[in-house]
C-alpha cells in the first residue's frame, strides 16, 4: 500500500511539474509583432484608381503556347506606363530585357549599400473558354463599380506592378531620395514559368555582378480565418516556395478483348498504385517554413491553441493531426500528391495495352526529386510500373531574423495595424525563385487583404479588388521603399 501511495505521489508531483512548466511556457510566450507606425497617405486616389483600371484593359495574356502571345498588347501596356508615370520614367533608368521584361533602377545616394529589388509581373492568365458570360463585369474592361475594380490582373498581379509604380511616383513628387539603389523588375511570362522574363532579368543582372540584399515578389497576403486559433487577419510572408514536380506512372502489357480480361489489367494496376499513394501520403513533419508560421502566430492565439503551440515539442503529434485535417494546413507540413491526368484505352471493348497516370507533386524544402521517386516506387510496390519524376525542388528558405524580413513585417504592420504578420511556406510558384541566385533572401507577399473567395478568383471568374485594398497596397510599397533605406 505504501508503494502505491509513493507511486501516486510521484505521479502527482510529475503532473504538477508538467502543468507548471507548460503553463509557464504559455504565459511567457512573447509576441513577435512590431509596433505599428501609421502615417498619413499622400496618394492621389482618383488618379491611382484610374491607372489600375486602365492597366486591366490591356490583354497581356500568357499562353502555354508562346506563339499565341499578342505582343501588340504588351507594347501598348508599356506605352501606357510611360504616359502614366512620367516622373518614374524621367528620374529612373529603364532597361528592357528580352524586349518585354522591364527593369527600373532608382539610383540611391550610397553606392556602398546593396540594392533592394521589388518584383511583380504584368502578364495574366487567359479567360477559361465558355466562362466569359459568367463575369459580372467584363474581364478586360477595368470597370470601377461599388468600390471595386474589376478584371483580370486586379489581384494577380498588375496590382503589384501598378502599386509599385504609384508608390514610386508619389515618393518622387515628395522629392524622396533613397540611400540604397532600388530596382523594380517586372516580368511578362510569370504565369508560364518566367523563363523569358524574370529568368532573363536575373541572367543579365548576374552578368554585371548585381547582387541584392533581398528581393520581394508577390505571394502571401493578408488572409482571414485561415490560421487555426487566430481570429485576427494574418499577413503571411512567403520565405520559401514548395517545389513543383511531375511524376509519371506507366505500364505496358498485352491488351486483348474485354470479354476475357486478366485478373489484373493495366488500368487496374495504375489505379491501385494511385490508391496506395493517396492512402499512404508523404510523412508529415512540422518543420522549417511551416513551423516558423506558428512560431509567429502562437503568441496571438486563443489560450487553448496557444497552450498547445507554446509546448509544441510535447504536442507535435497533436498539432500535426490538427493540421492534417484541412488541405491548406496539411500542405504546410508535407509533400503533396495530386493525381491530375489518367490516360488509357481507346475503345470500350478493348483492353488498353498501356496505361499512364500523371501526378502533380509539391515538394517541401528538403525533399529532393530522388527522395520523391524512391517514396513512390516503395509505396506502389509494383516492379512493372515505370516511374519518372521531373521538375524543380523547393526554393531556399529565407531568414526571419534578418532586417530584410523585419522591414517587410514593419511595413505591413504600418498599413495593417490589426494584422499578425508571419512567415509561411508558399505552395504555388512565383518569379521569386529565379532571384535566389543573386539575392541574400527572397520573400513573397502581396499587400492586400483577401478572403478564401478572393483567392479562388485569382485565376477564376470575377477577379476584382476593392479600392481600399488597392490603396493600401500602394501605401505598403511606399513604406517598404522607405523602411528598407533606414538599414
Write the layout of secondary structure elements.
Elements: H1 2-27, H2 45-56, H3 71-84, H4 86-91, E1 93-97, E2 101-106, E3 116-121, E4 144-145, E5 148-150, H5 158-173, E6 182-187, H6 198-207, E7 212-223, E8 234-241, E9 243-252, H7 266-280, H8 288-297, H9 303-310, H10 312-323, H11 327-333, E10 336-344, E11 354-363, H12 369-380, E12 386-392, H13 403-415, E13 420-426, E14 439-450, H14 452-457, E15 464-466, H15 467-484
Parallel strand pairs: 3-6, 3-7, 7-14, 8-13
Antiparallel strand pairs: 1-2, 2-6, 4-5, 5-15, 7-8, 9-11, 9-12, 10-11
Molecular structure report:
- With about 475 residues, the protein is an alpha/beta fold.
- It folds into two domains: about 45-220 and about 395-485, Zn peptidases (Aminopeptidase, 3-Layer(aba) Sandwich); about 240-390, Alpha-Beta Plaits, CATH 3.30.70.360.
- About 40% of the residues lie in helices and about 20% in strands.
- The protein contains 15 helices and 15 strands.
- The strands form three sheets. Strands 1, 2, 3, 6, 7, 8, 13 and 14 form an eight-stranded mixed sheet that branches. A four-stranded antiparallel sheet has the order 10-11-9-12, covered by helices on one side. Strands 4-5-15 form a three-stranded antiparallel sheet.
- A hairpin with a 2-residue loop joins strand 4 and strand 5.
- Helix 1 (about 1-25) crosses helix 9 (about 305-310), helix 2 (about 45-55) packs antiparallel against helix 5 and helix 5 (about 160-175) crosses helix 15.
- The longest helix has 26 residues, at about 1-25.
- The radius of gyration is 26 Å and the shape is globular.
